[in-house]
Amino acid sequence: MVENQIKARGIEDEKLLSAFSKVKRHLFVPNPTKSLSYSDRPLSIGEGQTISQPYIVALMMNLSNLKSSDIVLDIGTGSGYQTALLAEIAEKVYTIERIKTLSKDAENRLQKIGYKNIYFQIGDGTLGWKSEKNIKFDAIIISAAAPQIPENLVKQLKENGRMILPLGRHFSQDLVRITKKKNKIQKEKFGGCMFVPLIGKDGW
Ligand code: SAM
């Protein structure tokens, strides 16, 4: 998977490649499709949701230019696969999922593997991380399709923070990177993609 799907498509960041080698995708794929765990495609995780294609996860992480000191917000925990990959590279990962069963299963899975730098919330991720403290993130990755840029998430980005999201219509989106500079946002597009919908206040 790492050689043929990720490296072969031009992703060379060693931190990223080693995270993908370390985190075993079959631990995040439910039984009916476990034998397809390393195939080049998204797979069902139940509740009408998917674990994304490995390459698209790698591409989003690559676009977010992660450093080991980064604090990351991951919207759409799903199976927890991308959360684990982020936790291999960044200092802390905060993750929000709207479907309780998926969040609880992912939390159990990630605790069992041994991650200590992941924090979970259940709810509408478009509202941002709920906390008494005014927490801000170096990077935000949204792995569900948004019709607009969620305002609360822009507020929770640090200066020079990056937000990666699929932005567009219900069945086709552009992969977009937002960079926050001096309270303005810069927007770049990186080709087409198709994600399940982001459901919530600033979603569908
Ligand atoms: N990153 C996940 C993984 O590695 O398995 C895959 C995520 S799946 C493509 C998208 C997830 O976003 C679904 O689990 C869905 O329930 C969740 N989602 C949709 N809208 C959301 C929202 N407003 N807040 C939080 N999670 C949301």
Widest β-sheet, arrangement of strands: 5-4-3-6-7-8-9
Shape: globular
User: pLDDT under 50 segments (min length 5)?
Assistant: none
The helix/strand order is: HHEEHEHEHEEHEEE
Instruction: Give the cofactors and ligands.
Output: S-adenosylmethionine
Beta-strand segment tally: 9
Mean pLDDT: 97
Put simply, the count of helices is: 6
CATH superfamily: Vaccinia Virus protein VP39
Q: Write the CATH architecture name.
A: 3-Layer(aba) Sandwich
Major β-sheet annotation: 7 strands, mixed
Total number of domains: 1
Strand-helix topology:
Elements: H1 2-6, H2 14-22, E1 43-46, E2 49-51, H3 54-63, E3 71-75, H4 81-89, E4 92-97, H5 100-113, E5 118-122, E6 137-142, H6 151-155, E7 157-168, E8 173-181, E9 184-193
Parallel strand pairs: 3-4, 3-6, 4-5, 6-7
Antiparallel strand pairs: 1-2, 7-8, 8-9
Helix pairs in contact: 2-4
The chain binds S-adenosylmethionine (SAM).
What does this structure look like?
With 204 residues, the protein is of the alpha/beta class. The radius of gyration is 16 Å and the shape is globular. The strands form 2 sheets. It has a 7-stranded mixed sheet with strand order 5-4-3-6-7-8-9. Strand 6, helix 6 and strand 7 form a beta-alpha-beta unit. The protein has a single domain, classed as Vaccinia Virus protein VP39 (Rossmann fold). The model has no long low-confidence stretch (mean pLDDT 97). Helix 2 crosses helix 4. The relative contact order is 0.14. 25% of the residues lie in helices and 29% in strands. S-adenosylmethionine binds next to strand 2, helix 4 and strand 4. S-adenosylmethionine (SAM) binds next to strand 2, helix 4 and strand 4.
